[in-house]
Amino acid sequence: MSVVTNTTTIGAIELPSRRNTELMLLVFAVVIPIFAYANVGLAIHGELPPGMLAYGGGLAVLAGLAHFVVRRYAKYADPLLLPIATLLNGLGCVLIWRLDQSERLQNLAKRSFGAFSESAPRQMMYTAVAIALFAAVLLLMKDHRTLQRFTYISMAASLVLLILPVIPGLGADVFGAKIWISVAGFSIQPGEFAKIVIAVFFAGYLMVKRDALALASRRFMGLYLPRGRDLGPILMIWAMSLLILVFENDLGTSLLFFGMFVIMLYVATERTSWIVIGLLMSVGGAVVVGTFASHVQARVNAWLDPFGCYNTSGACMQVGQSIMSFGSGGVLGTGWGQGNSDLIGFAANSDFIFSTVGEELGLSGVMAFLLLYGLIIERGVRTALAARDPFGKLFAIGLSGAFSLQIFVVAGGVMGLIPLTGMTMPFLASGGSSVLANWALIGILIRISDTARRPAPAPAPSPDSEMTQVVRPS
Q1: Ramachandran sector of residue 354 (left: φ over 0; alpha: ψ -120 to 50; beta: rest)
Q2: In total, how many domains does the chain have?
Q3: What is the pTM assigned to this prediction?
Q4: Where does residue 362 rank: exposed (0-12), middle (13-18), buried (19+ CB within 10 A)?
C-alpha cells in the first residue's frame, strides 16, 4: 500500500514596505520646523509669527503629497530619505525667514537694489515646485535602468548646461562667477541640474569600460598604476573641470564634477591609484588656475588670512564674519533669532546660511545638521550596495558622492577649512535651482532604492513542483 501526498510551492514572503514608519517620521519632520518658526518669532518680535499656521499647513500638505506618491509608486523605497529631506527643507525656510527679519539686510537690499522683498515666500513656492518635480520623477521614471540608454545623450546635455552661462546675452556674471542664466525674468543655475545629468553619463560609461580601466600596467610605491591609454577618461574630465574653472570662475562646480567622477571610477575599478591620481590632478589644476584667475586668488587669500585683508576685500570680510559667527555660537548657540550672522551681508541666506546655524544653534546644531546630511549620504550608499544592477550601483554612488562633496565644500568654505566655493547648502540655502535639483536627486535615489528593496517575484508554478507523488511503503 502506498500514500500519495501533494506538496505546493510557497510564494515569496511579503516584506514590510516601511511606509508607516516614513509617515511617522514625516510628522516629526513637519512639527520641528513649526516649533523653530515659533521660536524665531518669539525671539525677534515677542509673539508668535502670524504666518505660522499657514507655513505649517503648507509644509504638511507638501509632505503628505510626497508621501502619497512614494506610498503609491515606490512602495518599498527607503523610509528615511523623504523625512530627512523634508526636515532640512523646512528648517531652511525658517532660517531664510529669520534672516528676512533682519533690519541690516533689509537696509542693504534697499541701498543696493532700491527695494527689499522677502525670500521666504519665494522659497516656499520653490519647495512646492520641487515637490512636484519629485513626484514627476517617481511617476515618469518607472525603472532607473532606462536612463542607461541615454548615456551619451546625457553627456551632450550636461555639456550644454555647462556652456549656457558663458553665452553672451544669456549668462549672467554675478560677483565674478558666471554660473547663472536668465530666462523669462528668472535666474537659473544650470550646474545644479548638470550634476545629475552627468552622473548618468559617468554611470553608463564606467559600467561598460570598468574592466579596461581596472587593468594595471606596473606597481609603484604600493600602487597599481593604470595603463597610459586608460588615462584618457580622467584627463578629459580633468580638462573639462579646468575649463569650467577658467571660463565660469566656479571652483565649486569644477571640484564637484571631477570629484564625483573619481569617486565613481574608484568604485567601478576598486583601484586606489585612481584616487591618488585624481587628487594630484585636482590640486595641480587648482594651483595653476589659481595663479592666473583673480577671482580664485581672492578666495584663496580670504581663506589663508581673512582678517589680514578684512577692510579691503569683500570676500575676506564675509569669511571673517562667518568664522566669528561660528565662534560666538559656542556649544549650544545664542538661540533662534538671537544671532548676528546678518552682518555677513550679501549671501547671508544662500552661500553663508550655515553660519546662522553655527551661531544660533551652536556646535550641537551644526553636528545635528551634518548628521542629517550624513544620513542621506549613508542611505544613498546603502541603496548603491543593495542595487542589483551595476548601472544602479554606480548611479546611486555617484549621486551620493556629489551630494557629500557639495556638503563638504560648502561647510568647509564657510568654516574656513578650504577656500570658499560659492555653492549653496542643499535644502537650506535660498534659491530655486538648488532646491529643485536636490529634490530631483532624492526622487532618483528613492526610485533606485525601491527597485533594490522590492522582493523578487515568486517563480511561476510548475506542474511538476505543485504535485509530487511521494510513495511510502505500507
Answers
A1: alpha
A2: 1
A3: 0.89
A4: buried
**Does residue 469 fall inside a structural domain?**
no
CA dihedral 221, 226, 232, 233 (to 10 degrees): -100
CB 133 within 8 A of CB 436: yes
> Terminal CA-to-CA distance of the chain, rounded, Å?
5
On whether residue 241 sits in a domain, the answer given is: yes
- The reply to whether 2 falls in a domain is no
Does some domain include residue 5?
no
pLDDT tens per residue across span 339-377:
888 888 878 888 899 999 999 999 999 999 999 999 999
Residue of 11, 49, 181, 40 lying closest to 98 (CA atoms): 40
- Under 8 Å CB-to-CB from 19, ≥6 apart: which residues? 67, 70, 71, 75, 79
The residue assigned the cell 518599498 is 76
Residues 96 and 463: beta-carbon distance below 8 Å: no
282-320 pLDDT per residue, tens: 777 777 766 766 777 778 888 888 888 887 777 788 889
Q: Whole domain around residue 244: which residue ranges?
A: 19-457
Q: Report the distance separating Cα 438 and Cα 211, nearest Å.
A: 32
Q: How many CA atoms lie within 13 A of 38 on its CB side?
A: 7
